[in-house]
Design goal:
This protein folds into 2 domains: 66 residues; 127 residues, no CATH class. The chain has 2 helices and 8 strands; from the N terminus they run H-H-E-E-E-E-E-E-E-E. Strands 2, 3, 4 and 5 form a 4-stranded antiparallel sheet that branches. A two-stranded antiparallel ribbon has the order 1-8. Strands 6-7 form a two-stranded antiparallel sheet. A hairpin with a 2-residue loop joins strand 4 and strand 5. The N and C termini lie far apart (73 Å). 20% of the residues are buried.
């Protein structure tokens, strides 16, 4: 039979090995996440340069060498539910075109904590005629980088309505609307209450 000391040593070795493996898995998951973001950015650059539906005109495409981003920031990723609003209310959302107004349902709020402060972002759901877009949710925001390092009208993060009511807000996926590259597009303007009082140093930078 193993002595009590031998059993304790075996248990400690097992715990140490498990901890090392857990750390390795966490590091691998983190690296995969970064690689995935970088892969998506490369694919987007290819689309902007070569895609038929790219927002860039031919002159812009000829001079295009890639979009500009902040480095991936792991601290600016948040998960949780959307706090649904009990009262059904339709807003008129302004766009970058003066006469283009879009009806949208005030869907709810996403709450998150950053640097010891609670922040909330209003989520909209546009009234869609196309059933394929009926689950799309709209999250537009501005922050302390707006008009300095990022697009003056704000940035977007894509969300898809789901039955579990669990969402991940990854600010590394924040992107500019098409009107940032081409004035012929009309893009919804984020609500004033979605201004974050800190610099969101993640996601896409301004297009120069």
């Amino acid at each position: 039979m193993l002595s009590a000391i031998a059993v304790q040593r075996s248990a400690l070795l097992f715990i140490l090995l498990f901890s090392i493996l857990a750390c390795d898995r966490a590091e691998i998951a983190s690296n995969v996440s970064i690689r995935q973001v970088e892969k998506e950015r490369m694919e987007k650059d290819f689309f902007f340069k070569n895609g038929r539906q790219s927002p860039l005109n031919q002159i812009q495409k000829a001079a295009f060498h890639g979009l500009h981003y902040f480095p991936v920031n792991k601290k600016l990723v948040f998960s949780g539910p959307i706090e649904r609003l009990s009262e059904v209310r339709i807003d008129t959302v302004l766009t970058t075109k003066t006469n283009d107004l879009r009806p949208a349902l005030r869907y709810g709020y996403f709450n998150f904590e950053y640097n010891g402060q609670i922040h909330r972002l209003l989520i909209y759901k546009f009234i869609q005629r196309n059933p394929a877009l009926s689950r799309n949710l709209f999250l537009g925001f501005t922050d302390e980088t707006t008009e300095k390092e990022t697009y003056s009208a704000g940035r977007y993060i894509d969300l898809m309505e789901n039955a579990e009511n669990h969402y991940t807000i990854n600010f590394n996926e924040a992107y500019n609307p098409f009107c940032a590259y081409n004035e012929n597009y009309a893009c919804p303007i984020p609500p004033i209450e979605n201004h974050l009082p800190f610099a969101v140093t993640a996601g896409e930078k301004d297009f120069k």
